[in-house]
Write a structure and sequence with these properties.
Blueprint: H1 11-26, H2 32-42, H3 52-70
């Protein structure tokens, strides 16, 4: 059962949330990690923390997935 806080956002709310994140990231000297940490403190269900560790983890997972999608499927040793 999904968490009740993790509902699908309506488009206007999503757009407002993204605008707020972009605003925090545009503040002089603020980077993505700090901006998402600040926003997550107030609304953790709306703004996940995205820091260097998370980005690296997703890059590795995406790279592995892209390799698996470009390779042909393995054939079974037994054929019918």
């Amino acid at each position: 059962m999904p968490d009740s806080k993790m509902r699908r956002l309506e488009a206007p709310l999503f757009d407002a949330a993204m605008a707020l994140r972009i605003h925090f990231e545009s503040i002089s000297g603020e980077k993505e990690a700090r901006a998402t940490k600040l926003l997550a403190m107030k609304r953790p269900a709306l703004f996940p923390v995205i820091d260097d560790r998370v980005v690296k983890l997703y890059k590795v997972a995406a790279s592995n997935e892209s390799v698996s999608l470009t390779q042909p499927p393995l054939r079974s040793a037994t054929t019918f």
